[in-house]
Amino acid sequence: MTQVWVNGERKPAETALSAQDRGLLLGEAVFETLLMKNAVPQFWDAHLARLQAASKAFHLPMPYSPDTLKQGVLDLLKHPAPSQDRSLLRITLTGGSGGRGLVAQEASPPTCLMQISAAPQRRDSLRLWVSDQLRLATPNPHKTNAYLDNIMARRQALAAGAEEAILLNQYGRVASCAAGNLFVQLGKQWITPPESEGALAGIMRAQLIEMAPAVGLDIVEGLVDTDLLARADGLLVTNSVNEIVAASLSGAVSDSQKKQGHALCEALPQISKF
User: Fold this and answer.
1) Of 62-66, 118-122, 243-247, which range is least confident?
2) 162 & 263 share domain
3) Distance CA 182, CA 180 (A)
4) Do 76 and 160 share a structural domain?
């Protein structure tokens, strides 16, 4: 039976949460998903900083220190340790078991849940589909459980024979992908929508922008409309699960573009200790 870590204890995943949990009832929850390589979480500090910022923004005080969370991860890894080189760690913080109502009727501490699962095989390319699900052009610094628009966009993409969706904002410009950020190549320059367009403040997005000069990429933040998207010389999608992947609207991704995606992944800082 799969075990999860809930408020300092390992529990069976099937019975870990209360039916009164506000994350379940109202989506009052924030989360982070981390890629683990050889059982080592990648970019732990960056993910934890974003989680702590989200917990503060939504008045969900994190009841556990980074050291306690780390010990919880190590405990999960023992029962049993993942057999795969790649796995995923999800940390979720909810409003706890305060019951229904926009504001909890009963004082209740937040629920902190951690779980480890197998990571899907990394793709070497993605076919993209432009969804009609809108993403508001507003800064999006936090990951919350309000994912219905992302889910519907991904379903549209899958129905169209693609693997990932692009979400436009109310101005008809690119905001992000359903699960990740988009980089658009035009000539020698790469353009990525700013957070003000609705782009998530992605951990991998930040890593690619930071290492761009060292790997010979010229990356700028800028507005990306559908005309520019159609004229793109290349596309990259970044997220913490697949890291950096070459993509296209047609599904035709050249070997050189796939190799570039792999090379950029190799250039990422490799976190080997936890």
Assistant:
1) 118-122
2) yes
3) 7
4) no
Residue 229 has pLDDT above 70, yes or no: yes
CA 35 remoteness from chain centre:
10
* Higher-pLDDT residue of 87, 3: 87
E strand intervals along 153-229: 164-168, 174-177, 181-186, 189-192, 218-221
Identify the residue whose tokens are 């913490």: 240
Q: Do 158 and 201 sit in the same domain of this protein?
A: yes
- CATH number of residue 146's parent domain: 3.20.10.10
Exposure string (b/e) for 159-182, b if CB count within 10 Å is 16 or more?
eeebbbbbbbbeeebbbbbbbbbb
Amino acid identity of 147? Y
d(CA 243, CA 122): 8
CB 140 within 8 Å of CB 201? yes
- Shared domain for 142 and 63, answered yes or no, is no
**Distance separating alpha carbons of residues 227 and 221, to the nearest angstrom:** 17
266 burial level (CB within 10 Å; 0-12, 13-18, 19+): exposed
Instruction: Tally DSSP H helices, then E strands, for the chain.
Output: 7, 14
Domain match, 133 and 114 both: no
Query: Which structure tokens are listed for 237?
Result: 């999608």
Please state whether beta strands 3-6 and 111-118 pair in parallel, antiparallel, or not at all (unpaired): antiparallel
Same domain membership, residue 185 and residue 107: no
Identify whether residues 10 and 61 lie together within a single domain: yes
Give residues with Cβ within 8 angstroms of 186, minimum separation 6: 228, 231, 232, 233
Q: Binning pLDDT at 50, 70 and 90, where does residue 81 land?
A: low
Structural domain count of the chain:
2
